[in-house]
From TrEMBL, chain A:
Residues 1-25 are annotated as: Disordered. One of its GO terms (molecular function) is oxidoreductase activity. Keywords: 2Fe-2S, Cell membrane, Disulfide bond, Electron transport, Iron, Iron-sulfur, Membrane, Metal-binding, Oxidoreductase, Respiratory chain, Transmembrane, Transmembrane helix, Transport. Its cofactor is [2Fe-2S] cluster. Residues 221-312 form the Rieske domain. It is found in: Cell membrane. This is Rieske iron-sulfur protein. It is a multi-pass membrane protein. The chain crosses the membrane at residues 35-56, 76-96. InterPro entries: QcrA_N, Rieske_2Fe-2S, Rieske_2Fe-2S_sf, Rieske_Fe-S_prot, Rieske_Fe-S_prot_C.
From TrEMBL, chain B:
The keyword Transmembrane applies. This is Unannotated protein. It is found in: Cell membrane. It comes from freshwater metagenome. Gene3D superfamilies: Cytochrome Bc1 Complex, Chain C. Its main location: membrane.
Length: 330, 528
């Protein structure tokens, strides 16, 4: 719509309407009392806060509908604080709305653009400054300054180098070696095949050498899940089948997607599910991904039993465990 | 002159003789602020930030940001004797032994959720009313920066207690870093001081959480507010309100009392939530160990959409030349969010390029009068909502007895289909509302009174609306689409013609409107 068409006119700011508190002194007095009551409620809240802090022991629980069993100390302390703050705010706003002037005020805006003269002066000042420094003429200074600043900017990167070691092949290694016993987590007890019933799951870790120490980083790579099925339930090629022992199959518990613990095992469907992003792995088919964002099966650990009948690793994992990374080759 | 006045005068004189503050104060104490409930949203964000600083400082007095292994010997019996990090143990100590500690933890966490929610709703208000237009583009970009920093700051904050749930979140963050091509493993090892989880990460993010990011917040918020102050607040259209004036209440006393009072109300409500509503009960999750997890692991809501995108991603990975690229992590975790946030930051410039409008705007748009912008906003929100829903797919599945697969497939399809549908519906709705406005101005308000005419016909009596209302419904500008010539005056095809074509098409879509009622329309109706 072009401007020639006659538009509807702006009637201008509506006339001010007085509030009752502006015209009726009694209403104003009432409002004043209301504000005072609100401030007094706040003061009572602070009293409740101090009283709760000093007098209510920390181990008393009271039942409240909706809230359930609630710690009385924490509840009344919090309510005291809430009242003490809330009613200061209510009082201030009630005061502003009933007793302070409510007439709207009009002020004018100023234009942000500087006057042309000022702009020209600014450009001139900047140019003069640059010329005085000789930035345009002395290109040697300009270039060496650029070099110096650029190099100085690198120093934080150099100085932060010791934040951590280089990854090396750390991401590809675990503590599992040929013959390492699988032990329960928690408990650190070695496991015999007969300890696991069909359908059972066990979380295991590699056995520690005497006096050894296990860090969380170790657990983050070594955690292995044992699952026992009936051998005929497997749908594996000969090699992968030879990595199982009497229906017991072992997978890395660290999700191949983003490294969460793949902890949910559905006994009926024989699916492993990661609670983080719901990647689902089929145990009978070597943890093939059947749903979700994970792109690779969970690495399978080849297991067998040692001379004493305890479950051990046949070999280390034949691929890195956990989420993908650039240097990973498959 | 009373004694009190004399003292006040002396103090004022002392300060003014050293700073010349009186001139500045005189001008600014009478500064006018427009009043509208939606202007409180930004205030809520600001006040939550102050609450976060106060409650966070309290927590630092007892929190021990260390991953050193300790044996728990505190009051909470179920965890007695367990190995855990000092960070987790000290969080338990704050929760169970420090009086008011749990209250402050809960206030801090609630304030963080309110902070983020207020930022998002404030951003929606600014977007849908066009408050980001010239001259306020800088403040829009600062706002997008604050939102991004807020997401990071919140994530780091709930990671600090080193419980099983938050440790799982850190594990996922580590996997995203590790997935970066070429530098991923190196960055991950530098960030964590070695293999995940190591013992360096919590102390490091503590510094970032309590020093670096709050410092950045303070700096950005200061500039944000100074710009609001200097540029003066936008105002909603209405009688007597123009692009050249500000109608509202003076800073002293009304605005100060209201804004100050509102701070206490926000703090009071947050304290009330902290008192009655349990949040992040870390003692139920147990200490973090990479070998364990709890079902239903959920991030805080402002991270939920990101998690939802990761969850719905198809299992794509490229293995070539001895290297791996995890598209299933990079696309949902970095590329899509990167595009979304860059697009959001650049939106003021994109819109002004489309409309060719380089003028200052201080009067806000009613969302219906900018149908394209409103539709684009609803489209983006729909995208985020589908992602957020999928982020809670496990909880939804168990609550509504659906399978994860159903929800995941719904999300995978809906994320592409629903946003365009939302765009079309919103645009239609806006145009319908414009049409309704036009009707209202021209034919008046339906009174609900039916009158039987002498010849038996029933008609409803319409009453003309007030002059103020009519002005509100017609004050907006309706600008025609940009007329971009594909060829110049001598018939030569202009370079970048394709860019021009695109611009012309978008400009045309942007200018679609129901013609607003004019005084001439009204006159014509009166003649009939």
């Amino acid at each position: 719509m072009s401007n020639e068409i006659e538009t509807i006119k702006d009637p201008g700011l509506p006339a001010h309407v007085h509030r009752r508190t502006d015209t009726d002194p009694k209403a104003a007095q009432r409002a004043e009392r209301q504000v005072a009551i609100l401030f007094l409620l706040s003061a009572l809240g602070t009293v409740l806060l101090i009283g709760s802090y000093i007098f209510i022991p920390q181990d008393i629980f009271i039942f409240f509908p909706v809230l359930g069993n609630t710690n009385a100390h924490q509840l009344f302390l919090g309510l005291g604080m809430a009242f003490s703050l809330f009613f200061i705010g209510m009082g201030a706003i009630h005061w502003a709305k009933t007793l302070m002037p409510d007439e709207e005020v009009v002020i004018q805006r100023h234009e942000f653009r500087s006057p042309d003269e000022d702009r020209a002066d600014f450009v001139k000042a900047a140019k003069d400054g640059a010329a005085a420094a000789g930035l345009g003429r002395r290109s040697l200074i300009k270039r060496t300054l650029g070099l110096a600043l650029g190099l100085a900017g690198l120093s934080p990167i150099i100085l932060l180098r010791d934040l951590g070691p280089l990854p090396g092949d750390e991401l590809s290694k675990t503590s599992w070696k040929a013959g390492t016993r699988l032990v329960t987590d928690p408990g650190d007890r070695p496991i015999r095949a007969e300890d696991l019933e069909v359908g059972a799951v066990a979380q295991t870790l590699p056995e520690l050498a005497a006096g050894g120490h296990r860090t969380l980083a170790d657990i983050g790579k070594d955690a292995v899940l044992l699952i026992r099925l009936r051998p005929e339930e497997f749908n594996l090629d000969a090699e992968r089948l030879s990595w199982t022992h009497e229906g017991i199959i072992a997978f890395s518990k660290i999700c191949s997607h983003m490294g969460c613990a793949v902890a949910l095992y559905e006994q009926q469907t024989k699916h492993l599910l990661c609670p983080c992003h719901q990647s689902t792995f089929d145990v009978t088919r070597a943890a093939k991904v059947i749903f979700g964002p994970a792109a690779r099966p969970l690495p399978q650990l080849a297991i067998t039993v040692d001379s004493e009948g305890y479950l051990v690793a046949q070999n280390p994992f034949n691929e890195p465990v956990g989420p993908s990374f650039w240097e990973r080759s498959s | 002159m009373t004694a009190r006045e004399r003292i006040a005068g002396n103090v004022a004189n002392y300060v003014d003789e050293r700073t010349g503050a009186a001139k500045w104060m005189k001008k600014n104490l009478t500064k006018v602020f427009p009043d509208h409930w939606s202007f409180l949203l930004g205030e809520i964000a600001l006040y939550s930030f102050i609450i976060l600083l106060l409650s966070g400082t309290f927590l630092t007095f007892w929190f021990d940001p260390s991953q050193r292994e300790v044996i728990y010997e505190g009051n909470y019996e179920p965890l007695e004797g367990l190995k855990m990090s000092a960070a987790y143990a000290s969080t338990l100590h704050i929760s169970f032994e420090v009086r008011g500690g749990l209250l402050m933890r809960q206030i801090h966490h609630w304030a963080a959720l309110i902070f983020m929610a207020a930022i998002v709703v404030h951003l929606m208000r600014v977007y849908f009313t066009g408050a980001f237009r010239k001259p306020r583009e800088f403040n829009w970009i600062i706002g997008v920066g604050l939102l991004t920093l807020g997401i990071v700051e919140g994530f780091l904050g709930y990671s600090l207690p080193d419980d099983l749930l938050s440790g799982t979140g850190i594990r996922i963050a580590e996997a995203i870093i590790q997935a970066l091509p070429v530098v991923g493993s190196y960055l991950a090892f530098f960030a964590f001081g070695g293999a995940f989880p190591g013992e360096a990460f919590i102390p490091r993010i503590y510094t970032v959480h309590v020093l670096l990011l709050p410092g950045a917040f303070l700096a950005l918020i200061t500039v944000h507010l100074m710009l609001v102050w200097y540029q003066k607040h936008t105002q909603y259209p209405g009688p007597g309100r123009t692009e050249k004036n500000v109608v509202g209440y003076p800073l002293l006393p009304v605005y100060m009392a209201k804004a100050g009072g509102f701070f206490f109300i926000v703090f009071g409500v947050t304290a009330f939530l902290g008192a009655v509503a349990s949040i992040n009960p870390i003692w139920l999750y147990g200490p973090y160990t990479p070998g364990q997890i709890s079902a239903g692991s959920q991030p805080d809501w402002y991270m939920g959409w990101l998690d939802g995108l990761v969850r719905m991603s198809p299992p794509l990975e490229t293995h070539a030349f001895g290297h791996t690229i995890s598209w299933n992590i990079l696309i949902p975790g970095l590329i899509v969010p990167g595009i979304l946030f860059t697009g959001m930051a650049l939106y003021p410039f994109i819109e002004s390029w489309i409309t060719g409008d380089k003028r200052e705007h201080h009067l806000l748009d009613r969302p219906r009068n900018a149908p394209n912008r409103t539709a684009l906003g609803v489209m983006s929100l729909t995208f985020m909502l589908v992602a957020l829903i999928n982020g809670g797919n496990d909880i939804i599945a168990t609550t509504f007895h659906l399978t994860i697969n159903q929800i995941m497939w719904f999300s995978r399809i809906a994320i592409f289909v629903l946003p365009p549908i939302a765009f079309v519906i919103t645009k239609r709705l806006c145009l319908s509302l414009q049409r309704a406005d036009r009707e209202l101005v021209l034919h008046g308000r339906e009174t609900g009174r039916l009158v039987m005419m002498p010849h038996g016909e029933f008609v409803e009596v319409h009453e003309p609306i007030s002059a103020e209302k009519a002005w509100l419904l017609t004050q907006h500008e309706q600008n025609p689409a940009l007329a971009l010539e594909e060829h110049d005056s001598s018939g030569v095809r202009r370079p970048k013609a394709l860019k021009n074509k695109l611009r012309a098409r978008m400009s045309k879509a942007h200018a679609v409107a129901v013609p607003k009622a004019t005084a001439e329309d009204l006159k014509q109706i009166e003649h009939h």
